């Protein structure tokens, strides 16, 4: 006696919506996360165009005013702080690359048994709390005449960001075929000629993204700038901190100062986002 086995029928009408939902879910989650990350910037922006009385209200309906910006410019020399930030960020980026590129070159193309341990040790220094070395670094800067100077902040920031620069450069250099450098060596290229004329041009997307990241990190550094500078070399992070006082926070002025401080780096990041993504994914797909 034969048995008939019934096969379950698949409802294609319900599978298509489920498939569409499954494909759309990552995009929806990404938009939600992006909205949450952007919300503080959005709230800071609208608060900057309020008066101090309006700043304590959560209403989105108000009459925009430039009063807070006028008071900020009247109280502080914004362009002096901005120029210090530019000098520090550019100086740190150039100095980090000048040290990181030769170090990463040696580690990528002439590795030893200690190369990985050295890289891990360099990265582990980023895990040390900055406040733990504040006193000795402050005394070193004071005794060497580097306190409240742009060069002093450049040196400190370089030491902080150098591990990241070396790690990122090493990752990009590791993707470069060694045969190209060996061909240059056969043609008589010296070590510096290999780096300048072969290695750097081939890894330019990665080095560009490293430079952008170093600029952003240097621009946003607040702990060391507040503790190692006061007036002469104070960057925009000190400019923002000057609008907080023991008596309370002036939210409208603080938001206006914050917007003036972050606007330049936001514009740079927006204009270079394609280059940054390209550099961060350099060598990821072969």
TrEMBL record:
Localization: Cell membrane
- Chief place of localization: membrane
Give the UniProt entry's GO cellular component terms: plasma membrane
Which key words are in the record?
Cell membrane, Membrane, Transmembrane, Transmembrane helix, Transport
> Could you tell me the Gene Ontology terms of the biological process aspect for this record?
transmembrane transport
- Residue ranges annotated as transmembrane are 24-46, 86-107, 119-140, 152-174, 195-219, 250-271
InterPro entries reported for this sequence: BP-dep_ABC_trans_perm, MetI-like, MetI-like_sf
Domain ABC transmembrane type-1 span(s) in chain numbering: 82-272
- Work out whether the entry's keyword set contains Manganese: no
Keyword check for GTP-binding: no
What membrane topology does this protein have?
A: Multi-pass membrane protein
Q: Tell me, what's a Pfam family for it?
A: BPD_transp_1
Q: Into which family does the record put it?
A: Belongs to the binding-protein-dependent transport system permease family.
**Full protein name:** Carbohydrate ABC transporter permease
């Amino acid at each position: 006696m034969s048995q008939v086995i019934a096969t379950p029928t698949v409802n294609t009408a319900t599978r298509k919506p489920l498939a569409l939902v499954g494909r759309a879910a990552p995009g929806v989650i990404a938009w939600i996360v992006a909205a949450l990350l952007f919300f503080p910037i959005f709230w800071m922006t609208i608060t900057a165009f309020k008066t101090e009385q309006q700043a304590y209200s959560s209403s989105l309906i108000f009459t925009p005013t430039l009063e807070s910006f006028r008071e900020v410019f009247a109280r502080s020399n914004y362009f002096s702080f901005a120029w210090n930030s530019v000098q520090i960020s550019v100086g740190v980026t150039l100095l980090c690359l000048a040290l990181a590129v030769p170090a990463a070159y040696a580690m990528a193309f002439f590795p030893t048994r200690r190369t990985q341990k050295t890289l891990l040790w360099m990265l582990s220094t980023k895990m040390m709390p900055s406040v733990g070395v504040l006193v000795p670094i402050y005394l070193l800067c004071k005794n060497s005449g580097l306190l409240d100077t742009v060069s002093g902040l450049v040196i400190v920031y370089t030491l902080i960001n150098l591990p990241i620069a070396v790690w990122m450069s090493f990752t990009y250099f590791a993707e470069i075929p060694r045969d190209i450098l060996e061909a240059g060596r056969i043609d008589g290229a010296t070590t510096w000629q290999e780096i300048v004329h072969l290695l750097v041009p081939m890894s330019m997307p990665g080095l560009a993204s490293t430079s952008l990241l170093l600029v952003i990190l240097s621009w946003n550094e607040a702990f060391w700038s507040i503790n190692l500078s006061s007036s002469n070399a104070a960057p925009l992070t000190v400019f923002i901190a000057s609008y907080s006082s023991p008596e309370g926070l002036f939210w409208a002025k603080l938001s206006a100062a914050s917007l003036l401080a972050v606007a330049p780096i936001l514009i740079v990041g927006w204009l270079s986002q394609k280059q940054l993504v390209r550099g961060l994914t350099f060598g990821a797909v072969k």
